[in-house]
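Service request form, structural biology core

Requester: graduate student, group of Dr. S.
Request type: structure prediction, single chain
Budget code: on file
Notes: please return the result as structure tokens.

Sequence provided:
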Amino acid sequence: MPFDGAFLNCVIKELNEAINCHVDKIYQPSKEELVFLLRKKSFVKRLLFNIKSGSARVQFTENKFENPEKPPMFCMLMRKHLLNGRLLSITQPDLERAVIFTFSSMNEMGDICELHLICELLSQSANVILTDENHKIIDCLRHSDIENSSRLLLPGATYFLPPKQDKLNPLTCDFKLIEEQLKTACLLQTIDGFSPLICREIEENNNLSSVITTLQNGGVPTLILKPNDTPLDYSFTEIKQYGDGYKNKTFESYGMLLDEFYTMRDIQNRINQNARDIIKLVTNLKARTQRKLALRLEDLKKCENRENLRIYGELIKANLYAIKPGSSFAEVPNYYDSEMRNIRIPLNPALSPQNNANKYFKDYKKTYTAEETLKKLTEKDYDEIIYFDSVLDSISRCRDLSDIAEIREELADSGYIKQTAVRRKNTKKPEFKEYISDEGYKILVGKNNKQNDYLTTVLANKNDLWFHTKNIPGSHVVIFCDGNDVSDETILQAATLAALNSKACDSAQVPVDYTPVKFVKKPNGAKAGMVIYTTNKTVYVTPKGE
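Core staff response, request fulfilled:
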């Protein structure tokens, strides 16, 4: 995540609203989080310090946290030194990923003293450090390893900022000097505070000066969303490098932006953890079915020459008089050949010529039956692989735990997991994704195979329009038009939704089939979400977000 020095600079401009606030309360929800409640006249804000790997940040937050019954020792230390203290300043050394909060507080002797709370946001080594006015460390959330650390972060040690990189500060450096340096080095190696995301954006759009101006003005809190509306990244400026399929959503404050990003990401992580077992199960089932299919296709290939077995039997039978018992082969004219050339037929010397002919006829009949059986089994294997792909695709697009629960029910109903593994049967009606077209038609999108079946076979009228990506796992989409003429624009809107809610959501020119619902049939015994359809038309769309 690009919580780089430039983004931190923008956040600090927002945090400066808290100058002269008093620390009303201090909490430590987890070993890697601190929350300060800051208060002054007409101003109350929660200040969050988070040093979790991949989530390190400092921000105002509206989120509420569950606190442990017994405060941790570090929280008690913070309360001892900073509770009721006044926030004097918030500073950032150049564009480093560190921010220094200076507090005026009263010590045990009743004297006013100055304390510094430093928040370092250095990816794997993020930390919160409390020092006195002489920069002696009182304590920190993470203590350093004496043997392996380049800096000593322990109580009593003198605090030093992390070593600076030899880069130019775009807020204080002359622009001509930056341009001169860029002649011999790339942007990432030249400018301090810019993440790879921002450097790529500048290089692709040649807009260094405008990005610096945006940074000087405090930036614009921007969330970058994937085509399926899940969060990809955030920034202080608009990001265009991902193309039209990705959206930029702006916020009133950086606190609101970070709250939404990490809340959405945490929800997705919880969903992924909750679905981990069924992802593993379905992936293993798919791999096992693919192995079975490969073996069956190999056996089926052996059956391709079964007609030769019948011909061998016929030719032996027609030449019984010429074949000597005990022969290991018979060389006879092939009257199935237009030129009547001789053919050598292998024989079992232990069998009579008649019994050799009977064995070839028997093997022919056996391979005929095997071929018919193998064809049915391979068709079943193909259907299962398509079904497993559809389940994995549905899981990838789950947005809450109830979606995962529905997929568990589906797998239980199909016999892939035990019914006891599903806590309770979901009796609520499915909650579809719902949209309204520009023409005013309602469009529903299924989230999983059970919803797809219900949407297509129960809810939809036979004259409504049905959509699905061509030969690609995805959702069923229905325009509820009741046979009325639908414009090309509405058809494209529904087709785009079908592409977005499919395995091809990140692709271009996705083929989407559509047809009236009356031409969509669910075969007897077909798995959830599996249908056949006819009289369809196909359109090609490129997903650009819902």
